[in-house]
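Troubleshooting: if your tokenizer reports a length mismatch, compare your output against this known-good record of 98 residues.
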Amino acid sequence: WGGAFALSMQACLFLVVVVALVWVKVREHGSRTWFEFGLDTSKQMIGSGWMHIANMLCAMIFASTSVDAVIDECSWYATNLILDTTLGVFVEWALLTA
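Known-good structure output:
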């Protein structure tokens, strides 16, 4: 899974996201309570977390079955992320506008 450095980077990124979300809530001038805000953001965090895990698993599987040893997990993860955020958004848009 990448060792202690990879896990500490994951934890740091998670902390940055949580701080950013709390900052958004403090600066927001809406009528949502902290509970409602927590429900809204937890839904997004759970979805993003599952996509992150799926991308990591795909990257590990693709790298282990790759014929070319030059392409590692990081390259596959970046490829999955780019495809998800470009092609995936296009597919969602097409489905929503159909």
